[in-house]
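Predict structure. Chain length: 354.
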Amino acid sequence: MSQKNETPVLILSLLITVGLIGGGFWWFTQKSGINLNQSNKSKSPTSNTTNQPQAFSGIKKENKFTAVKNIPTGLFNYGGSTSWAPIRLAVDTAIQAALPEFRLRYVQPSGGKAGSSSGIKMLINGQIGFAQSSRPITDEELERAQKRGFSLKQIPVAIDGLAVAVHPDLKIPGLTINQLRSIYTGKVTSWSQLGGANIPIQAYSRPVTDGGTVELFVQDILGGEAFGSNVDFVPTTTQALRKVASSLGGIYYASAPEVVPQCSIRALPLGRTQGQYVVPYQEPFVTPSQCPSKRNQLNIEGFQSGKYPITRNLFVVVKQNGQIEEQAGLAYANLLLTEQGQKLIVQQGFVRIR
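Prediction complete.
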């Protein structure tokens, strides 16, 4: 074929090739959902930056940590509740792996013990960026924050409950909230007064100043009354559970995930009325002889429905000051509310909030 005849063929082939490439590109952008105009807009200097905090939305739910928007960059100190320790260990580690630019550091209070109250105090005093709490914010804390020119917001991210531990050989079916109050205010001193054997009751508690769990117990169970002289104050839950395990008359309360799975004690059923007890664990009960190959798990349905009488929310407390601390607190709460965050919370023995 001559060069003259080859020219139209080459031109036609070129046009066909361009058409195929153009059509393929159009098909790809439609199927993949790419919007070229939007992509260009996202690079515009007028677009929203990560330094601008957004209002928390409890409606939108992302699946993974990496899908959460407005994650700030930097190192953010936080502090608060000891009941949060299992969440810090698992969830925060996973957050760091997925979002290394959002660095988290738990800070102990310089004076006193860690807890919800000390964490919120540190937040108000500007020592940390956000706080973890196992109880709601108090009016006094809100007033202190307002005097410093900002407000506080509490965002529920998980459900917890208080469980009561007794010796596994103690023969008693359960307790009402009123009976529990009578024990810890010193009005009842023997298990025989509650249908059990003639065994002295030895009540254990962490000190009143130790955080949200004790504060919640005093407010909701004791009704503001003081602990009785019969209560032995123990520094940690680990020490208290050991004392209960070695004392037939012992009793102690703590966050349910710290109590229910233990092998050496029994988590006691509780009720609002006598005989109407709700177990804090999933039935059938795992006996000490079956543990640790099997362990008791939380009664999730009882906690979520409110049938179990002592439940509470765990909160992320955010400083609403329009600064990067607010953005960090909101980002942390939104991360915990993702499907990934909620699954990790459940794995640590807590109940998902949604």
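Summary: The chain is about 35% helix and 20% strand.
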